Amino acid sequence: MQHQQDGPLALLAAGLALGGAVVQAIAAARLRRRGDRWSPLRDLSFTAGAVLLAAVALVAPPGGTFTSHMAQHLATGMVAPLLIVLGRPVTLALRSLPPGGRRRLLAVLRSRPVAALAYPPVAALLDVGGLWLLYRGPLFAAAHERAWLGALIHVHVFAAGLLFTAVVCALDPLPGRPGIVLRGAALVGAGAAHAVLARTLYAAPPPGTAFGARDLATAAELMYYGGDLVEIALAAVVGLRWYAASGRRLARESRRGAGREEPPASASYGQ
């Protein structure tokens, strides 16, 4: 597979990524103009993810052929999706769209296909299962010969990574509201499958390809350790979300308990 997409495809990918950042900025500015609060850190995170996507589409990462590809894979399928999800684009869209657009977006989010895709085991299978098919099957070698197939694979890697990250982090509204246990199990399972896949690349390159031993080992290490770092970041987001939700729940229960224990004013006067 090539380091980056060819000419027009690369420009199209970069343009779409940067266009998404512009749309995010406009929607956030609209919220602030009407007096709503929206953290600029979310805009910064989303923009960083979009710029990263544009950069890896236009410029080949340094290193050997397979190492460069693997850096692109990590950026496109793991790092950029995490940065974009931290920007909470769906929440921003729901808050900034007019009522008609909000209803249509909610109808999509509540549809059966989206609910099926947002089920954590399904999202994990689409993400890591696709990588196993790519690196342990004939797809990688075929994509090297067909630019259109390489472009489709890049789109899948990004879309599957974005879906999995959004489902695990659960920062934006999701159908079915999967619990932390199921999301955590999906993260652990996907992380283990990703690590095993990286280890197999130490021993053998994708079928139909040939890379130098150093290039292959460096790419496998990048996939293994880079994937671990992103998965630790995902686990941190999940843990912080659980901690914040637990704190809010305890605060609500404390307020309700205080309300029940406080005697009515008339009763205190009668004592």
UniProtKB/TrEMBL annotation:
Keywords noted in UniProt: Cell membrane, Membrane, Transmembrane, Transmembrane helix
Location relative to the cell: Cell membrane
Topology term for the membrane: Multi-pass membrane protein
Primary location group: membrane
Keyword Transmembrane helix: yes
Transmembrane regions: 12-31, 43-61, 73-94, 114-135, 147-168, 180-202, 222-244
Taxonomy, superkingdom: Bacteria
Protein's name in the database: Membrane protein
